[in-house]
Design a protein that fits this description.
The complex is a heterodimer of chains A (314) and B (409). Chain A has 314 residues and is an alpha+beta fold. Chain A has 12 helices and 13 strands. In chain B, helix 3 crosses helix 10, helix 4 runs parallel beside helix 5 and helix 11 runs parallel beside helix 13. In chain B, 48% of the residues are buried. At the A-B interface, helix 1, helix 6, helix 8, helix 9 and strand 11 of A face strand 1, helix 1, helix 12 and helix 13 of B.
């Protein structure tokens, strides 16, 4: 098959995406496909795609544009099939404000949260409501940009007086910030691949610094991973189930990673979902696949088949 | 159950690598280097100003006349012809140096690493300016020092602070300073402070490392004597052709007492045997034609001066009143101090979103300070781009102030 792997782009996750993209491309080539990499950050995407129309686009873009439905819409317009979640569903999944709401409506447990819009702060004096927001969520809390990946702009806050700065930091990455209750427990990632989505073994994340931030994610050796996660059998099943319900609620396709925390009582909480999980040498989805006896190449093949089956149906 | 460690050597690395980790700022710079972003971040010399035809001639000349030397290993100390030429370059700033006491290094950056290697044992104290050149902190940091930080004001390093520290019993292995148009602060050490610093260190027996990459890039005012001129014995001087010629040739040097120079040569040979003869000879040839290098260098100074002016005017116009900034008389950088509530590291993402980039202040302190400061470089972008970049930054800072007022009431 002739496959264009889209990776790179213009976001802070550019380098991570390129690393994902190169590995995915190499695994397609290994399987005998004609695969090449397109970096939308390097040239005009539409022209490049039209020039050498691929039979399938594999989306290894991370962050805005690649995960928020922008590129997906463009591909729909060009009638080019792609792997992963559909444009509109990407838009919801990538935006924590929309995604958390959709999860709650579907009955998926996600930590209590409040949304702070940048424009409301600037133009409506919304800062006065911050006290009420903190009261609702409680301390400690986590402040996140509504639309950003790789934990960029995420702040963990223990004291009320530190919330404003964390909000400003999050708003640097996105137009809105989400203040979320901090759940203590075991951090796990639930990977899914294929069509229908098949659960991969849970990966337990144990950052040495205690916080799974950007450095802990991308510095080799800064985090220990256990797979399957060191959870009691029933808790593990409930966690996978909760993650699957999240993926279904958000209509995710082909591949996804759902990040959760399992609290001290064994209850899973969905923190966020990723429509384009990393495929780098330090990424969780390939690690989960490996634990299930799948190589990266097997994993990519599975994702590709899911996309191709959909293409045939349409 | 399998325990996955991404890096199977994780328990084998040396302790000194513990500070080497992935960073958000690095990730943002990947975006900041895109053409649509006006980068006021990097301190890249404006090499486009170098006349390509003249450079080609020099390269051809070296390969025609000196190929067998240029393509061969060389001496660890560096080619003698080049060292003689470098002595002449130092004389431009009134500094006398014997070519025998010069060690040519791969940029002055390698000299910093070698000095770290020969002076610092883990836990040793070294004195650095606050803020200090980030590359020096990186080079020294690998040798696990403890830092004694000395504040910088408009007249450079506040020598009284060093004096007080010595009085308290601090005994740094050396004092590191960039006295002319320092990176990042852009300030220059006054004549009086220079005299005070060399006297203080001479008396205490503490060597000074004088890093002088920007000395010949003075836009106005009278040149001040090198610390090495004031005290030839106690000062280790570092020079480079990166700013007056090309950073791509990677030619820097150390001028030091014979005993130090000898150790540097041994350390250099252990590190990389010798520098690139090709680059050394190319550099020597470039500086052999007095009129040629002087006119190119003067053109560079002229360009940098106009860019500095453009930046200072734009800051004056666009940056909110609550900020303060330095007014460099040379070099590449303006150092901006913003209200304490601003976090320049967090703000960088928003800046890049608005297509402008800078370096957050924390990079220049070994102790986490500098959160509300930023370094702006005027060396590389055109005047027009500098004005536009500063305007974008100013707009962002105003918006942030509005946010802050809303959040803090």
């Amino acid at each position: 098959m002739r496959i264009a792997v889209l990776a790179g782009g213009r976001t802070p996750e550019r380098d991570v995406s390129l690393r994902s993209g190169h590995r995915v491309m190499a695994s397609f080539i290994e399987r005998g496909h004609d695969a090449w990499l397109i970096d939308p950050g390097e040239g005009p995407l539409v022209e490049t795609l039209e020039e050498r129309r691929p039979e399938m686009c594999y989306l290894a873009l991370h962050g805005k544009e690649g995960e928020d439905g922008t590129v997906q819409r463009l591909l729909d317009l060009l009638r080019l099939p792609y792997t992963g979640t559909a444009a509109f569903d990407c838009e919801i999944a990538f935006d924590k404000v929309l995604a958390k709401d959709a999860l709650r409506r579907a009955g998926v447990s996600t930590p209590e949260w409040v949304v702070i819009e940048g424009w409301a702060l600037r133009d409506l004096g919304g800062g006065a409501a911050l006290g009420a927001a903190i009261e609702r969520v409680g301390l400690p809390c986590v402040v996140k940009p509504s639309r950003s990946g790789s934990a960029l702009g995420v702040g963990f806050v223990d004291r009320e007086q530190d919330v404003p700065n964390a909000v400003m930091a999050a708003l640097s990455f996105s137009g809105a910030a989400v203040i979320e209750a901090k759940v203590d427990g075991t951090e796990v990632a639930a990977g899914f691949a294929g069509s229908p989505l098949d659960a991969l073994p849970l990966v337990e994340i144990a950052p040495k610094s205690g916080v799974f931030d950007y450095a802990a994610r991308y510095t080799a050796g800064a985090t220990e991973y256990y797979t399957p996660a060191r959870l009691d059998g029933a808790v593990e099943a409930a966690t996978v189930d909760e993650a699957r319900r999240a993926a279904q609620a958000l209509a995710l396709r082909d591949l996804t990673r759902v990040d959760l925390i399992v609290d001290r009582r064994g209850r899973p909480w969905v923190l966020e979902v990723n429509v384009s999980p990393g495929m780098t040498e330090t990424s969780l989805l390939p690690m989960a696949a490996q634990a299930a006896g799948m190589s990266l190449s097997d994993l990519c093949d599975r994702i590709l088949r899911a996309g191709a089956a959909r293409m045939r149906e349409s | 159950m399998a325990e996955f460690s991404i890096d199977r050597f994780v328990d084998r690395y040396a302790e000194r690598t513990s500070g080497m980790s992935a960073s958000e700022v690095r990730a943002l710079f990947a975006v900041a280097s895109r053409p649509e972003v006006i980068s006021l971040a990097g301190g890249m010399p404006y090499v486009e100003a170098l006349p390509a035809d003249l450079i080609s001639e020099v390269v051809a000349e070296v390969l025609r006349d000196l190929a067998s030397t240029a393509l061969q290993y060389g001496s660890g100390q560096g080619d003698l012809r080049l060292r003689e030429r470098l002595a002449m370059l130092m004389a431009e700033e009134g500094l006398e140096g014997d070519p025998d006491d010069i060690v040519v290094t791969t940029g002055a950056q390698q000299a910093l690493d070698l000095l770290g290697k020969i002076f610092i044992d883990p836990g040793d104290t070294i004195a650095v300016e606050a803020p200090a050149y980030v590359g020096a902190l990186g080079a020294f940091g690998a040798y696990q020092p403890r830092y004694l930080t000395i504040e910088v004001d408009a007249d450079g390093m506040v020598v009284e602070q060093l004096e007080e520290a010595l009085f308290r019993g601090e005994r740094p292995k050396f004092v590191y300073t960039v006295p002319n148009f320092g990176n990042p602060a852009g300030v220059t050490m006054s004549h009086e402070r220079r005299e005070d610093l060399v006297a203080l260190c001479r008396e205490a027996g503490i060597p000074i490392i004088e890093d002088n990459p920007y000395g010949l890039l003075r836009f106005e005012g009278l040149p001040l004597p090198c610390l090495k001129t004031l005290d030839p014995h106690n000062v280790i001087y570092l020079g480079t052709v990166s700013k007056t010629f090309s950073p791509g040739v990677r030619v820097g040097w150390a001028l030091a007492e014979a005993s130090v120079a000898q150790r540097l040569v041994l350390a250099k040979e252990a590190a990389d045997l010798c520098g690139s003869n090709l680059n050394m000879l190319l550099t020597e040839r470039w500086f052999s034609d007095d009129d040629r290098w002087r006119s190119v260098s003067a053109g560079l100074v002229q360009t940098y001066r106009s860019r500095r002016d453009a930046m200072l005017e734009a800051i004056e116009e666009h940056v909110p009143d609550a900020a303060t900034w330095t007014k460099p008389q040379g070099g590449f950088f303006v150092w901006v101090t913003l209200p304490a509530w601003l976090d320049t590291k967090a703000l960088l993402a928003a800046a890049v979103e608005r297509r402008v980039a800078y370096v957050p202040g924390t990079a220049f302190y070994p102790d986490g300070r500098g959160a509300s400061q930023m370094r702006l470089a005027f060396c590389y972008p055109t005047e027009e781009r500098i004005r536009e970049g500063v305007a974008r930054l100013g707009g962002l800072l105003s918006d942030e102030a509005q946010l802050y007022r809303s959040l803090r009431g």
